[in-house]
């Protein structure tokens, strides 16, 4: 998918979502032609927040939950804006996602990896920015992360994320093999309600460099490999989930080592319409610049 | 939550013909006979008295049930569920169910979750709304959040029996 297509998808979805949000109760009417399309059936935060790649999840990790607040008899949707401030870079993401009958999730996101003044040091030019579009589909297979309290079975979903980066020439110059790629993942999420504890584990088959922001595959390795992303969260109140995440990543490029990522997060739901996630993220070394640790902020608006 | 619905169901299934109504107490509408069993409560009780104490025992559970039902009946999302419900019976059986699960020394004399919700047509979103009202009521009673979740974890598995798919 090209960026133009991705952008047009975003443009076409945003007005609907925004209209629905602004319309409040009218949002339900918009979808009355769809059978069983009540909104707001899930409990607070149980659709997750918007992960950096646009899918419902934590910040770095994608979860098995479907995004938004639609239960099996409803739909949910949201838009997000995420900002990550690092010592030598800045990452911005905007996107939209819908959850359909707590079964299917569709998501789009546009990420901008801004090298700022670091771009000049890398020989790319001041403010050089990689832009990546991510289109994702997730399908719930079995389990219920929230209500399946009598079973050991987590909620399990599979998903695909297709990513396309607009800087193929630079990616090629640093040893990357492709400017687009497709990740496939299996996610398992379970809320241990009696402990107020949420646990997620995801295995992602990928060869994305820095999640695709530096392309796909490389001179060191060009094969898909399973990578892990995990989240542990503790519900402090109905509105507040705090926790930590860890994500392993490939290390395909010879010119720069890539590290695993880590974060400590707090996700606060003001209501089912607005949530804010703040995190301390450690993304390690990115394109030879070490210790990329900083602040992650993500606003999600939806229903 | 479903419990409430379930009770509602019990009330709804009133059979006016059967006079010997062993399972309804004075002030309640008659119900068809059924086998009374604690197993109908749909969950095993907690051990010890900590949970019962955290819910302020019988009086606290009474307030929680009342507020949960009042909120649910006033909520446009869920009000319709209770239109044909014997609220007197529902309040009693819900209190019994909560008391039984919280190990407060009660017997549960209501119907099973599946029977009680058989004809209500409860939808998943209704269930979510009922949980939210129960959470609000427990918070108002001062039940700590984590304790609330321990209780909700007992109720959550009842969802498939109470919700119409």
UniProtKB/TrEMBL annotation, chain A:
InterPro entries: DUF3034. Keywords: Signal. It comes from the Bacteria. Residues 1-28 form the signal peptide. This is DUF3034 domain-containing protein.
TrEMBL record, chain B:
Keywords: Heme, Iron, Metal-binding, Signal, Transport. Pfam families: Bac_globin. GO terms for molecular function: heme binding; metal ion binding; oxygen binding. SUPFAM superfamilies: Globin-like (SSF46458). The keyword Iron applies. Heme binds at residue 117. This is Hemoglobin. InterPro entries: Globin-like_sf (IPR009050), Globin/Proto (IPR012292), Hemoglobin_trunc (IPR001486). Residues 1-19 form the signal peptide.
């Amino acid at each position: 998918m090209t960026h133009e297509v991705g952008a047009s998808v975003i443009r076409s979805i945003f007005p609907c979502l925004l209209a629905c949000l602004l319309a409040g109760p009218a949002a339900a009417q918009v979808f009355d032609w769809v059978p069983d399309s009540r909104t707001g059936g899930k409990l607070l935060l149980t659709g997750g927040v918007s992960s950096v790649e646009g899918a419902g999840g934590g910040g770095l990790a994608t979860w098995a939950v479907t995004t938004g607040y639609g239960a099996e008899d409803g739909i949910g949707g949201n838009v997000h804006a995420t900002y990550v401030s690092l010592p030598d870079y800045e990452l911005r993401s905007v996107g939209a996602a819908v959850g359909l009958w707590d079964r299917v999730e569709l998501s789009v996101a546009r990420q901008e990896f801004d090298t700022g003044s670091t771009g000049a040091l890398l020989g790319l030019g001041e403010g050089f920015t990689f832009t990546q579009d991510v289109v994702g589909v997730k399908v719930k297979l079995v389990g219920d992360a929230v209500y399946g309290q009598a079973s050991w079975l987590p909620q399990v979903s599979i998903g695909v994320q297709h990513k396309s980066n607009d800087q193929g020439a630079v990616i090629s110059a640093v040893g990357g093999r492709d400017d687009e790629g497709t990740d496939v993942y299996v996610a398992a999420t379970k809320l241990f309600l009696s402990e107020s504890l949420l646990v997620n584990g995801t295995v992602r088959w990928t060869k994305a460099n820095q999640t695709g922001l530096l392309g796909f595959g490389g001179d060191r390795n060009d094969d898909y490999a399973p990578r892990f992303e995990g989240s542990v969260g503790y519900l402090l109140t109905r509105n507040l989930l705090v926790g930590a995440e860890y994500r392993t990543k490939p290390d395909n490029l010879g010119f720069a080592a890539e590290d695993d990522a880590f974060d400590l997060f707090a996700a606060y739901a003001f209501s089912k319409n607005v949530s804010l996630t703040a995190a301390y993220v450690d993304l390690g070394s990115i394109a030879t610049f070490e210790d990329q640790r900083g602040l992650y902020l993500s606003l999600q608006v939806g229903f | 939550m479903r419990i409430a619905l379930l009770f509602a169901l019990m009330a709804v299934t009133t059979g006016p013909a059967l006079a010997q109504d062993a399972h309804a107490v004075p002030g309640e509408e008659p119900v068809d006979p059924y086998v009374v069993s604690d197993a109908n409560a749909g969950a095993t009780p907690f051990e010890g008295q900590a949970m019962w104490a955290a819910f302020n025992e019988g009086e606290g559970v009474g307030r929680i049930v009342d507020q949960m039902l009042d909120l649910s009946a006033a909520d446009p999302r869920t009000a319709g569920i209770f239109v044909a419900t014997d609220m007197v019976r529902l309040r009693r059986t819900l209190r019994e169910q909560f008391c039984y699960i919280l190990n407060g020394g009660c017997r549960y004399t209501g119907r099973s979750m599946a029977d009680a919700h058989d004809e209500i047509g409860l939808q998943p979103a209704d269930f979510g709304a009922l949980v939210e009202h129960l959470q609000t009521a427990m918070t108002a009673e001062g039940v700590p959040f984590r304790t609330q979740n321990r209780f909700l974890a007992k109720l959550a598995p009842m969802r498939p029996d109470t919700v119409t798919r």
